[in-house]
Amino acid sequence: IDQSISNYKNFNKKTDDNEIIDIRTVVDSTIDVLVNTHKKFQFKTGYKSDGALLVKGNRNEIQQVVVNILNNAVDASEHLPEKIIKIDAALKDNLVTIKISDFGEGITEHQLPNIFNFFYTTKKVGKGTGLGLPICKNLLQKHNGQLVVDSKPGQTTFTISLPVHSVD
Asked: CATH 3.40.50.300: does it fit domain 2-163?
């Protein structure tokens, strides 16, 4: 937990790092790593944009959000015979969105209001700290973005939204 808190403090530091980031690159590079560590999983991507999906911000922080949400989706799907994670990225209404869906049991109505609270976890002891989702939400807010969840039995989708960076 100490390391997670330390990482959170580092993530929350103001940086001058406002690089132009292609979300396709972030998603693809994250999946390249996860494919090697989760060989039984299929990561299905879909990109709905003719051009680049560009945002401005800290690449490491945005990638950390994607990694965390994907790891949560893997955890939720570990017990399933078909281990499929769906990732769709699109440009809509001046927002770049990344939708990450798993097909696990879903998040219950009782759990849903708490998932962005620090130290709240539904994972087994030793498996989760309850820091991942609140950190993700804060990192996205720092980038003027948001994190929204939609869950029902058999499917959970987290939607990451960030303002598009327009190339002038």
From this structure: no
